[in-house]
Amino acid sequence: MDNLLYINDGVFLTESREEAEATAQKIYTHFACFGLQMHVGSPNKKSKMEAVYFPPSMKEAREQNELPPNLKLNNGDNNIHFSSSFKYLVSYITLDLSDELEIEARIIKKIDQMGMLCRNAT
Predict the structure, then answer these.
(1) Is residue 39 part of a domain?
(2) Tens of pLDDT along 51-62?
(3) What residues of the chain score a pLDDT lower than 50?
(4) How many structural domains comprise the chain?
(5) What are the Cα distances from residue 52, in Å, to 2, 32, 34?
């Protein structure tokens, strides 16, 4: 990570919670060296950044009822929250890796586009 200067819509894959927190802290610290900032949260503010935990099996993913606790940065002063789904570039990714949310979002978008066409045609 010694040549990381700017990230927009970046993804970092880690194998453990500890590695995720360490990686997030390294990026946060590195950005600060250049006057850049990560959009992290605080105890009373949700982070713009998101983390997703993918369980080791689909069965566990479907049975997971709660999101993991927030990742802690800066000795707990900041955090990154976990989400059950997020939009990366143009696609939705869910913790159970299903495509239902993506399909639903595309249908809604097409319905909206058809509505705009109808309004513009009159």
Answers:
(1) yes
(2) 888 888 878 877
(3) none
(4) 1
(5) 25, 24, 27
- Model pTM greater than 0.85? no
Long-range contact list for 41-44, CB < 8 A, 24+ apart?
41/70, 41/78, 41/79, 41/80, 41/81, 42/77, 42/78, 42/79, 43/79
Nearest to 62 by CA among 88, 97, 93: 97
Residue 74, CB half-sphere, CA atoms under 13 Å: how many? 14
pLDDT at 3: 57
Structure tokens at 24: 């997030």
Strand partners, 82: 51
- Torsion angles phi and psi, residue 79, rounded to 5: -150, 165
What range defines the domain where residue 88 resides? 17-121
